[in-house]
Design brief:
- By secondary structure, this protein is an alpha/beta fold.
- The protein has 2 helices and 3 strands, in the order αβαββ.
- Strand 1, helix 2 and strand 2 form a beta-alpha-beta unit.
């Protein structure tokens, strides 16, 4: 059996755009939330959490006073 390794790997256009927008917002200094996990990739979600992004569940949305929800 021959195993071939792709030269690159990544996200589809829409997912990449959404993830890029969250990373851009982390540089703005405001509190950032994602409405559920922005992507089903634990490493990316953990990296965003380390940058201050909070994954928001539906029942917590109404209690927000400030911040940006993506």
């Amino acid at each position: 059996m021959e195993v071939r390794l792709a030269k690159t790997a990544g996200f589809c256009f829409g997912v990449k755009r959404a993830v890029d927008q969250v990373y851009e917002q982390t540089n703005m200094g405001k509190k950032i939330y994602t409405y559920g996990p922005i992507i089903h990739n634990e490493e990316v979600v953990k990296d965003l959490e380390q940058k201050g992004v909070t994954v928001l569940e539906e029942d917590k949305l109404d209690s927000l006073k400030e911040g940006t929800v993506i």
